[in-house]
Design brief:
The chain is rod-shaped, with a radius of gyration of 66 Å. It starts with a helix and ends with a strand. The chain is about 50% helix and about 15% strand. Strands 3, 4, 5, 6, 7, 8, 9 and 10 form an 8-stranded mixed β-sheet that branches. The protein has a two-stranded parallel sheet with strand order 1-2. The chain has helices at about 1-10, 20-30, 45-160, 180-190, 200-210, and strands spanning about 10-15, 35-40, 165-170, 170-175, 195, 215-220, 230, 255-260, 275-280, 285-290. The chain has about 290 residues and is of the alpha+beta class.
Amino acid sequence: MEIEEDIYANVEEISVKGCDDLAAGYETLHQSPKAGTRLNHENQNCQPYKLATVSLGLLCVLLLTTVIGLSVPYDDDYTHYLLTANHTTEKKELQTSYENLTKEKEQLERERDQLLISYNSLAKERDQSQTHNINLTRERDGLQRKISEQEKKISEELGCCPDGWRRFGSSCYYFSTESKTWTESRADCIRGGADLVIINSREEQLFLNKMGKDVHFWIGLTDSEMEGFWKWVDGTTSTTTFWRRGEPNNTDREEDCVVFNRFIDLSWDWQIIPSWNDQPCSVSTQWVCESRPK
């Protein structure tokens, strides 16, 4: 008891009248640690508020800890969810791109195969055309050789054509450069041992058609003895004819002799060869003589 009395005798008595004085009393206690501090009964009214404040603080700390503890796994799960969703979307996009590229690849392969088929077909046709052309060239060369050989044989048998004359088949042809009537032209041919040309075939007509553009000459065909009854100068009748359209028309009833009118360019199509036209025998024009073998 004496010790307690001494302690209390040495303790400085501090009166705390309210909650606001609690802090002041706490500071006084720490400023005089050796002396000690005694709080009077007035601070008892603040104890419940102090306990409530401390409890509330502890509760806040506990709630904050709980929230933090719960939020961390939630954030991790949400982040994992987002990553998983993004990965799934990217995977689907890549899968779609892959499928599209696969389809494009298959389409390109089909087109390539079609092009290869077309190329092989064209190559085959080209080879066949080349072979055909080679065969035609060989045939042409063979025919040309035969023609040359026949012409040489004919020339050897019949002799060469006189100067200024042209050979076709077994005949020689002379194309005049001056103009005369049909009768005068025939007389000139006869003096040269020939007569006006007699056309007996399409080949001979083509040969005469190739003599040039704007060519007009007498041929040995006339109906002067009987109108409409055409005869060659050798007395034979005309079986192969090449009259121009609308001919013969015997204009003014005086056209009894035949002229070869070659005044269009037929080099592009030798099938267009009709060129005969009846004219008055008194017309002056060029002529063609034909010398046939005896």
